[in-house]
Write a structure and sequence with these properties.
By secondary structure, the chain is α+β, with helices and mostly antiparallel strands. It folds into 2 domains: 122 residues, no CATH class; 174 residues, no CATH class. It contains 15 helices and 7 strands. A 3-stranded antiparallel β-sheet has the order 3-4-7, with helices on one face.
Length: 333
């Protein structure tokens, strides 16, 4: 967010205007504080920008090893990387090991200093009563299971009242991407109990139940069989888990909506009244997930594994909500 080109990669139709824009000062003026979160890998342009800030424009083959430098025309300098014809290649992610010395050491030292100053600033703001929203996994999961929580929580947790926002997506039931969330105050201690509680408070959705059944399904099936399987699984869920109220009210309607959409996305194949799993099962809103059926099954399995950490749905410390994300070609979670 604090380097030239960030917005151009997110707003493609304004790319020609935003390629060289550095909106860092704007974000800071709005109260959006920077946080260094790219420790070992960054875009080529990001590493080049770090070197150029100290030394001025440099040849790309001075900054990077021959493997990276070979991606660009001979004589390319760092300031060229935001030109239209080089911009896409310059946004490819490479490891810090591809950066030559002394620039690699300078970037590592700067990163270490930035991390410590970021954490100290966060601690000071929390002590003054400020609120932080953190995504503790640092990235989205591609297999449905949560990623490890990152170290910033260990610094801030002793200073704060913690609320966990358990988020579930329901990708099979609408062309738009429904998102359900549940907010729970965490009164425990420790990263692992926090992670388990976060897994347990996520809402159970129709897509999770349907995906779990389909993950073990090898034969063709009908709409009626799918509805029956989901209703059976719904009845067998541990009572302390929170289930999407719409699913509770009418599972049949949700599954009836889901199957044609899954056929449209080539997750399912249809033959008359029967459906079968397609060989490849991808969803347009989850472009980096290889098998969206396995993803949903793993997601629900992890929630159930941690059911002992689930607070009662009627708890006064619980808030729930539902929303939708418009379907776009470059949706990221």
């Amino acid at each position: 967010m604090y380097e030239p080109g960030f917005l151009a990669t997110r707003i493609q139709w304004l790319r020609f205007v935003l390629r060289r824009l550095d909106a860092g000062q704007l974000f800071v003026s709005l109260g959006l504080l920077p946080l260094e979160n790219e420790l070992a890998s960054r875009a080529v342009a990001a590493f080049a920008w770090a070197a150029q800030r100290r030394h001025g424009p440099l040849r790309v083959d001075e900054i990077f090893d021959e493997r990276v430098a070979a991606r660009f025309p001979p004589g390319t300098i760092s300031s060229d990387l935001w030109r239209s014809e080089l911009f896409t290649a310059a946004q490819q992610v490479v490891k810090i090991t591809t950066v030559r010395e002394p620039y690699r050491r300078e970037i590592l030292d700067e990163t270490r200093d930035l991390l410590e100053s970021d954490l100290a600033r966060m601690e000071a703001i929390v002590r003054r009563g400020g609120t932080f929203y953190l995504t503790p996994e640092g990235h989205y999961t591609v297999n449905g299971r949560m990623l490890p929580m990152r170290g910033v929580i260990e610094r801030l947790a002793p200073l704060a009242t913690i609320y966990l926002a358990g988020v579930s997506y329901d990708p099979f039931v609408s062309r738009r991407l429904p998102m359900l969330y549940r907010i729970v105050r965490f009164d425990g201690a420790g990263i692992e109990p926090m992670r388990k509680t976060l897994a347990a408070v996520r809402p159970v959705t129709a897509s999770q139940l349907l995906g779990t059944w389909l993950h073990s399904q090898t034969d063709r099936f009908t709409l009626g069989q799918a509805v029956s399987a989901v209703e059976t699984a719904l009845a067998a869920l541990p009572p302390s888990l929170f289930v999407d109220p719409e699913l509770r009210r009418n599972a049949k309607t949700m599954i009836r909506r889901a199957l044609p959409l899954m056929q449209r996305w080539n997750i399912l194949q249809r033959d008359g009244e029967h459906y079968a799993l397609a060989p490849e099962r991808r969803h347009p809103q989850f472009p980096f997930v290889g098998d969206i059926i396995a993803y949903q099954a793993s997601f629900l399995a992890e929630t159930i594994e941690n059911v002992a950490y689930a607070p009662a749905p009627q708890s006064a410390n619980v808030r729930i909500g539902r929303g939708e994300i418009a379907a776009t070609s470059d949706q990221r979670l």
